[in-house]
Amino acid sequence: MKVIEHFILLRDHYHTVQTNIDLPISKKDLLPLYKCTNRNLNLILNKLHTEKYIVWNPGRGRGRLSTLRFLLPLEEVAKSYIHSLIKEDRYTYTLDFIQNTSLSWKTKEKMLEIVRLEFGLKMEDDQENAQSIIKIPITTKLQALDPATVNHKTEGHLTRQIFDTLIIYNHRKDVFEPNLAFTWKESNNGASWTFYLRKHVHFHDGQILTTKDIKYTFQRVMDPSLKSFAHSLLEDIVELEVYNDWIVTFHLRKPSYYFLHHISSLYCAIVPEGFSSNNLIGTGPFFVKELKEDVVKLEAFADYFKEKALLDKIELRILPFSKDLVDYQLSTKTVKPKKAHNIQYGSRYVGFNFRKSGYHHHIRFREALRLLLDRKQLVNDMETVQTLPSNSFLYTNSQSYQFNQSPLDKAKILLQESGYKGEQLHVYYFDMVEAHELANWIQKQSKKIGLNLMFHTIPIHAIHDQHLMKTADMILFSVIFSDEEYSLYSYFKAEFGFLRPCLNDEQKGIIDHFLEAFHLTRNKEKRKQILQMIEGYLRENLFILFTYHVENVISYNEFIDGIELNSSGWVDFKNMWVDPLKSS
């Protein structure tokens, strides 16, 4: 602990004592505060005295008290120290000091408020002009910002700021819109698709986009060694024919009027030829200024081929979870915040690894787990996120389901009928704050029925690890969709996704039978029905156990405009802006 931190701790302990007033005191009174030896306490007090934080006059002789005089007020020193740590970008250290030091609640709250005020959307003056910058705290460690392999909603959202796709699917209007390609044509009864690129589109490093980059992007995604989510979605591509720098045709094995959905997917965002995930170069509205383990900084790309982003800079700080510092907020407490909210497409669920033998193959075991997961109780107990009980990947379906209290005594009987005799089973989950809370909740519930579960954390990209598939009995999954149809379809189809690696060949064969019918119809309502039939097959056989949907709620200041949450609960940064007349 630094000298100034020793002072803050000491000054807070005696916060009622005025500055420059002598306080009679015994060193015995200070030993419990610092939890150290008498020798170390002398060293601390002498340093505080030398650096003019206090005046320390040790008592001489038996029974004589020492005197302590504070030379500086607590609030002034604490405020200055927290600001100095933030200036050095030491956010994690700052929070650790505030939360894990024996300070009073009042002092901690004042120090946390200084940290909170660092976040949000604001104007910053540089030498030439005022710039708008948003600083956001998040608690999710970023694994990758490579569009071909992205698996987490935060990563996905940031990736969309850096990269662009050939076309865009507007799910609200149910139409495809031009993007890097200004137009496209279908031929050969839907077995060939030709795209015409905009000219003079720049990558962030100044290179010009050409069809060489398009061909490289798709060859990369289709490479099985990359294990891209989109790999199996593009399996019908047999050739990419490049005519010149601006025209490219995709030739398919068979007609597919669903091909445009694949092309518009984030996983197919265009990267430059020779792209490396260590050097994130795209054509998007923002470019990567800095990427470290604890911070991501993006800046608006001046040569963006569409309208330039209204926001100048984005800064995301990856911090340890704290109930005192809300994840992903856009406001401070200086004004009354507004709120925006929505309910995510997708659901959290418990999945079983049918590639491994075990009790989870027995229907009675899975029925016991279904009863153990009392979803009404679960959503009442969750604290890290706002949740709603789920019985489907889509909240609109869950709304019509009647959630009843689960009888744990019946769960015990079902567990016994499965033949389970107390053996330890292994459950894996992704290393995220919310998942930790869900795992702890299931652990407590399982003990009530005699189910012995060992929980392990894994990074998101470890789902394809062979060791995991050999050891995991169950996995706690979190899937978030960008729309109701394509996301659900690709979830059922993708070999390198979350679902199929856990299914056996028979289960995948039944799903593929449904998907064949899906491909043959151009009727949107019939496609929706087929997807619901696949979900019903998984739900009714208890191959997956739904838990809850997440409701996104963010706060933002009244001077921020352009706020609209997307399906994953994030705001499109390029449409945000600060009204200086309101913020001044």
Automatic annotation (TrEMBL):
Query: What keywords tag this UniProt record?
Result: DNA-binding
- One Pfam family for this entry, by name? SgrR_N
Q: Extract the InterPro entries matched here.
A: SBP_5, SBP_5_dom, SgrR_HTH_N
Gene Ontology molecular function: any one: DNA binding
Domain Solute-binding protein family, chain residue ranges per copy = 176-492
The GO biological-process annotations, alphabetized, read as:
peptide transport
Q: Where is the Transcriptional regulator SgrR N-terminal HTH domain?
A: 4-101
Q: Which SUPFAM superfamilies match?
A: Periplasmic binding protein-like II
Claim: Amino-acid biosynthesis is one of the keywords in the record: no
PANTHER family named in the record: HTH-TYPE TRANSCRIPTIONAL REGULATOR SGRR, PERIPLASMIC BINDING COMPONENT OF ABC TRANSPORTER
Question: What protein does this entry describe?
Answer: MarR-like DNA-binding transcriptional regulator SgrR of sgrS sRNA
Q: Which organism is it from?
A: Salirhabdus euzebyi
